[in-house]
Amino acid sequence: MRKISIFGATGSIGQSTIDLIRRAPDAYDVVALTGGGNIAQLARDAIALRADVAVTAYPDQLDALRAALTGHDIEAAAGPSALIEAAQRPADWVMSAIVGAAGLAPGLEALKQGATLALANKESLVCAGSLLLETARRHNARILPVDSEHSAVFQGLVGEDMAAVERIVITASGGAFRDWPLADLKTATVAQASSHPNWDMGQRITIDSASMFNKALEVIETREFFDVRPEQIEVVVHPESIVHALVGFNDGALMAHLGAPDMRHAIGYALHWPDRRDLPVERLDLAKLAQLTFRAPDPARYPALQLAYDVMARGGLMGAVFNAAKERALDHFIAGRIGFLDMATLVAQVLAQVDERAGEHGIDDAMTLDTVTRMDHLARGEVDNAILKQTG
Ligand code: NDP
Ligand code: MG
User: Fold this and answer.
1) Which residue segment(s) compose the domain that 155 sits in?
2) Does residue 304 sit within a domain?
3) Which ligand has the minimum distance to the alpha carbon of residue 206?
4) How many domains would you assign to the chain?
5) Ligand 1 binding pocket includes 123 (Cβ within 6 Å)
6) Ligand 1 touching residue 122 (CB < 6 A)
7) Terminus-to-terminus CA distance in the chain, angstroms?
8) Which of 228, 227, 247 is nearest to 149 (CA)?
9) Which ipTM value was assigned to this complex?
10) How far lies 151's CA from each of 58, 175, 244, 263, 300, in Å?
């Protein structure tokens, strides 16, 4: 039996992962499941999967979790240190599907135990790519991509020589507003931004798809995962979300990965890698699909995308600043304090000023969990200050 843990088990990726492992209950020994506020779901799954421990990220939810687990031999724990402790429990395969920078510390800890880390939490690669990769190398651990584009690229590279790779193209659906008149974006609401045309995902990544902050994170994620230069990474808008990524080689060949928009494919690929197993995903009928379309992303509609290239050009700890500023701007958008387009404006402003604001300990400090966390806090504070100034 393979020992597995799922961080962010109550979320969209976590639930898809659980759907797959429940289909083969004898194959897996579930160690830890973690969640946030959705205690009922966390307890239900911990009981059904007979987990050793269930962890909520929120200390004030511990009593509720304990109550929900009454009568079952499952430990309950809460808070950030409990997440770390759960990551220290031996596991062969760990799903990293917490949303946001909060996924970084547990992911690092799982790698230190030598676990294979299935990485949905792209934020950790964006804010601390070289730290994660170096930790994996030092502990002989492996990181497998779960983001659909990166899983697609990973699959396209099997048996290939990286020296022959010319470019990597990742696709973007264009999100909720891809066909809206530009003038309407300014007043787009949270509800409107929270519905995705093709994928069923958590709210935050769905809004990030509409703004293309998600694709900006994925461009940086591509650079970290595949060690290519920024100018080798391209984004193309592909409204059908059937082609997930393409790898271009030096002989002109472009290898595409196609599949239905269902995260259980990429999760299942990471779960069974290096094998391929039967997965419960739709088989495409190409004649029925009839056509696949592609277009260049419009920089006026998606100003967030260029920021990824600016961040990579600056290097150092700028990824941590970028991700944190994005997360905080998104918090404020969801809370109704700023408009949809203000998110990219604010993040660009923080990036432009951070060198000056960081003082002695800044972007060029060596990358450790502490320095990444410091930059993360600084960037969140800068976003808050900018909004306070605006609203007086
Ligand atoms: P969801 O919002 O659906 O789920 C997030 C999970 O993280 C939940 O289990 C949530 O708990 C938990 N959580 C929230 N805040 C914290 C915190 N501060 N500390 C610890 N746990 C927390 O997100 P998704 O499943 O959509 O996304 C998860 C990750 O996967 C993200 O990094 C996203 O970018 C990435 N991803 C997602 C895809 C998708 O299809 N959904 C596709 C590709 C990548 P609770 O709900 O109980 O509060
Ligand atoms: Mg993706």
Assistant:
1) 150-289
2) no
3) 1
4) 3
5) yes
6) yes
7) 59
8) 247
9) 0.99
10) 31, 20, 9, 10, 29
